[in-house]
Amino acid sequence: MGASNSKHEKDIAYIKEKNQVESIIRLVDVCFDQCVNSFSRRDLNKREKLCTTQCVKKFLEFTQRIEERIEEQSISERQKMETRRNEEIKKHFANQN
């Protein structure tokens, strides 16, 4: 069972890392599209800076909530697996008596 948990944890870590990379790509796409309207200046103007700051903040909060939800589901799944395993052990010992 330990190897299975280890693989499960590695899978979750991989999914989290992949999601983080994808989130950064989406963040750049969304915030750039929403906030930057021209390339006439080298730097962002005041409105663009404010817009990108707010966009990034909102996006990061959203991403954090998704990650928390994935972790909650993972914990719930581990608890269910543990409960099933304990029930199987109890049945096994009950059948031996």
From TrEMBL:
Name used for this protein in its record: Mitochondrial import inner membrane translocase subunit
Record InterPro entries: Mito_inner_translocase_sub, Tim10-like, Tim10-like_dom_sf
GO cellular component terms, A-Z: mitochondrial inner membrane
One example GO MF annotation: metal ion binding
Protein family according to the UniProt entry: Belongs to the small Tim family.
Source organism per UniProt: Anaeramoeba flamelloides
Membrane topology: Peripheral membrane protein
Classification lineage: Eukaryota, Metamonada, Anaeramoebidae, Anaeramoeba
Gene3D superfamilies, per the entry: Mitochondrial import inner membrane translocase subunit tim13 like domains
